[in-house]
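Proteins fold reproducibly. Take a sample protein:
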Amino acid sequence: MAMSRDGGNLFEENRLEEIRERMDAIENLTVTYNDNVFTWEDVCTLNGLGAGTSTTYKFPCARLSPMDFFQETRTYFKEVDRVTWYHGVVRGAAIRPRVLRFGILQQHCLGLEEGQSDACKVQAGLRLNPDFAEQMGYPREYANPLGLIGDVGSLELSDNCRICIEESLEAKMEKLQHELVVPFFSVLARELRRFQQTLADPEELAQVDDLATKAEKIAKKVDKRAVEDFYYYQVLRSTYAELGAEAYQSAYNQLITPDAVPLDCSTSACPKFNITLEDSKQALRNHADNTFSSITTAGSPLPAWSESDGSGIMLQGFNPVGGSGVNMSADTLSAVAYLDLVNYRNTSAWNPLYANSYADPLNDPNWVPLVETNPVYAWFMAGETEMTAHCGNGNLTGSETGDRTFDTFTNFVAVHKLTQYWCTKYAEPFEEDATRTKQHFARMFYDGLLDSDSFLGITQGSDDPYTWTLGAGCGYSLGGERYSYTEQSEADVLANASGNLYFIEEGVSVGVVDRNLLIGDATPPVGNYNFSNPLQKVGVVQSLFALLGEPKAIRNRVSNCNRPGGPLNITDEDAEEVLYLAKERFDEIWSKGWDDESAGEVQFVGFVDDVGVVGTTGRFLKEITLSNGWLTTISILIICCFSVFLMFSLDAVESKVALTLVGCGLVVLSYFAALGFSIMIGIKINVATAWTLPFILLGLGVDDMYIVLLALKKESQKGHSEDSFLRGMQEVVVPVTMTSLVNASMFAIMNISDVPAVNLTARVALIAVVFLYLSIIFCFSAYCFLDMKRQAAGTRDVFCCTKAGERSNEDSGNKCVGTWLSTLLYDKLFKPLVLGNSTIRIVSHLLIWAVAAGLVGVSIYGITEREVGLGLEDFFPHDHQAQQWASKRTESLGSWSIGMNWGALTYTEPETQMKMIKQFEDVIAHPNVADVDTKQLWIADLAIWTSRMCDANVARSNPSIKMCGRDQVWPVDNSTCAGTWKRNAFGLRQKIFNDMKGQCNAYEGGICRPTSKMHFADLIDLGINMSAQDQNEVWCPVMEGWSDDKLRFCIKQWRFLAGGGGGLILEDEHGSPTQCQGEYYSNEEIKTPIPYSTGPTMFSFNLLSHEITTTVIEETRAICDDDKELHCWLTGIPYNYWSQYIGIFSVLVEISAWSVCVGFVVAVLFLLAQHTRQGGNRSLAQNVGGSLAGALLITAVMILSLVSVIGLSILAGVSITGFSIMSFVLSVGFSVEYAVHVVSRWLHAPNSIQSASDRVDYAMAFLTLPTFMSFMSSCIGVATLSQTEFSFTQVFYFRPLIIVMPVTYYFGCWWLPAFLSILDFEFVKLGGESEEVRPQEQPIAEKQGLPEPTDIHRLSDQEDSDNGKAPSLLEDITSEVEC
């Protein structure tokens, strides 16, 4: 993409030059790999004229650009490219077919002879007679004889004139070969041999033997190509005379006058004055038949020189200079009359025109006028006759009359007015003599004549599609040129760029290029401007460069024999690396200086797709993915430091720094182990994995670590035995297992998403949750047990090999940071507010409920304001050139390539074929899909190929091979690949026909046609009698009655002969090889029944927002994907990427609902299991009821948190995407982390604690510290994301996750306890008689020699135990949270 830095117009000379230079830099791109240099031509999609043409590396790489409006863009055409274009396109596809048909039109379709068709009489009259053209409604300037050459190529194949031309041409070539050339030379050879037997003179014998041998050789080897060549050059000869006569007559009569020629015509021979048009024609024919000149090959038709070869003097003779060297002045049938071929086998009637009973080339006076100058004899004999000469660009000579003034004048005229320079270095031999055949030099002359300014005005090796146009596209003429912006005003440049845009072939193969794809920020907008209402500004232009999508295609490409520097043998892996380097280099070259205001007036930004190997996005995402290391490290360090800080105590024995570090280390190790395991089983790490999981899962991991650590710490207050350890683990194993299972289930549910970045990340997270659970429950707990032993032994924390000194048990708890923080958070903050005196409690509860209601209310509003989607511009940071590209593309272009695909259908059925076409036409009829001619669809193109509308025979490289379906014979039953026509029962588009009056339609439209435009032979086949009803019918080409085997054969022929496509599955890697190594024909076998096919490349445009894009996807899928009768599916970036946003809110609701439901079910089951395990006098109904109540409370927290997170995130500018959904749903995991522990402990408070507020006091006195630590550690992990330079991670990860943390903490640790404090119901009181010492635990007390505790008391510490003191409930709870 190129855009003006100042927001102004790009279409002015200086800025267009900048764009052209940048495009040329891409064409010159090179990369080095394994000491081999690879070029742009090694990796671009198309750099030849097609498979089997041996032109790979001899034609420019395909690209689409608005710069194709302008002639200056031609600089990317190398010399070899121009030569290929000249021979393959201009001569082979455009001019030769037209010249042949122009000759046929003149000779066979004007009704000039009795019994001859006059089908082209009107068309010829329009071009030859201005009055007639005007009478028929055409402008007078339409009458241009040269226009007939263009007409014969553009007339419909169903036009009667075109039918006459095509049928006559085939008949003419057959007749020339088999009824004239071969018979003539066969008989001539025999007759010469007969005459040879009469000769005795060795010299004469040798002369006649040479002629007879040549005649025999010609008769044996002449083929259709040779005959067509003969006719082509014969037509050129006559065309030279017919079309050049008028101009020659005018020039001659102005130059050669009695006053201008200083000769005394009474004593000297003077040239003819005031010549007629017929005189002019004859002069031109004489020139064509004249001697070939190596001095000045172009010569001059003016009969004014003493010598014919260019060495003579002007006005001293009556010879033209130069010519073909092959005299074809006699009638074509003169040789037939000479040999009397008609009666040759009838001896009695045979009457040749021999003067002496033999075909005597030595003495027969009839030989020269009837045979030697006969076009057939002269041309083909010239092909067997050697000649030494060369193509020369010398000057014509002037006169030598002695009159200095006159001679100076004639020399000036001869050099500057009459001399033409036809020879180029490609006219071999050039400037130096070499031996070839006379026919070779004759071709040289006629080719130069055709290229001369008098006709085509083209120079081989110099001209290209920008300086010489084919006349196929609207606004282009044959031999014209594309507009040049050099030294033109801005208004003129804009006006001349206001028409249709074409690729270099002017729409012949790919059609008109939709300007919506390539031009943006235009005034007037694209679609509203034209030559009458021209452009006023173009702010953005986009150029599309195509690369090979598969590494193996590059491997095949570089093995081609035409590769500059020689072919290379590389592996697919090498090719993949080359493609990667080429894409990387493309980005570097195109976007160079994009952020440098001094680097020109144009800003260049670009994007390379990820087909084959990663491109711009892939490289950037890899960069993002791998750049999270430092933030992850910082997050880990801060979390570890925070945890260590809270677990540090001045009491070296009670301190748990080492154990905390071990726990943090296990969490980190478990995460990276899960990451490594995921990679081992084939899960690719992506940006979501890198920028979500380490910051979330590490927090979840340390949350569980805190719970286990503090629970065991509490139990260690009662002793350091195995029983104490087991009691602690029994308390936490169920809630930790439950939270882990909920989290695992939540991540499992995320696999509903079809976004790889989401479901792959969810799989990694699922594995990580399992690993974290196992490490915390089995590994970390073991370290905790060892730490308990350390404490029992009285050794120091960290320095565990050293004994601590005397310790005071009275103030050991006050030495712990955690104790201080717990006192601050719970005693000074939470308890006074939530559980304090009635006034404060009422106010605080009202405030808590008000905040909760406010959060939910605001969040619900936020959800109603939701936006969906994530554009490419959201991926890239603002300081990345691709972000500018993506933003401008969304604002001004919004175009993407798309495609249609079909699976296994009954392709042999006409109804299926027409339905496919209908689907295709309905999709491209959508206002956001660029128009494409129906014939671009493979099934439509194949149908045309099987009909009489096939034009593949027009420009055959080998005239002996017919290339249309009706000419291909299926050997199984000798039927042909001929289709038929069916009535248009599906409302398919009709073809748009130009009326030849200057109106030009850029698009052809459909392939169906009305009865009036049908080929008469098709109407006969269909039995149409041209009734009024039949006149209104529309017909469409189809294949009917074919088997799969016949379809297989015909498609193979179609692909081989006509270059058909369709993306069909091939059974061979490539077709048969050509003579050029590494190049193959397109004749692979296709797989049948056809399992899969594709449509042409299509483009969507004006997708300027996510909403428009998803609407277009839904509307077009309704045509294709949702069709139950004939299923097809649409692909391309909009469908592969934006389709995830269709119904994405429903996906969010679905994933959220499943997560909450799973959380509810897991909570019910685990709470029930926990109640059942604890035993007691409760019934099953009580356990179930309590479990349901607890699960409902947990679910309420999940729902409130989820709704709040979603709504607040949306208000914070986070749109709904697969990435944000993942962040939203993580709130379920965090809310469960808090709610499970709170609800579980609240439910299981000892029965002696009766009031709801006391039960909350019991739960939160212990949980305040670990939940706050969990909250802080998670916040720390997420907060580090704020330091990323990538806006994508800040928007879709940091914003929602930083909202998740306080919201879930608020609902789980403030709103939930406040709510629980008013739930004073018996069925939720599921605790035991004493939670601290159960009956089965009494042996432990007895074993330790401790007094049996009361129902509501516990052993607080050893000193109290010794004194037999029973602490109060408050003292009991307070001591539980001491270090």
Remarks:
- Residues 756-793 form the longest helix (38 residues).
- Residues 1331-1379 have pLDDT under 50 and may be disordered.
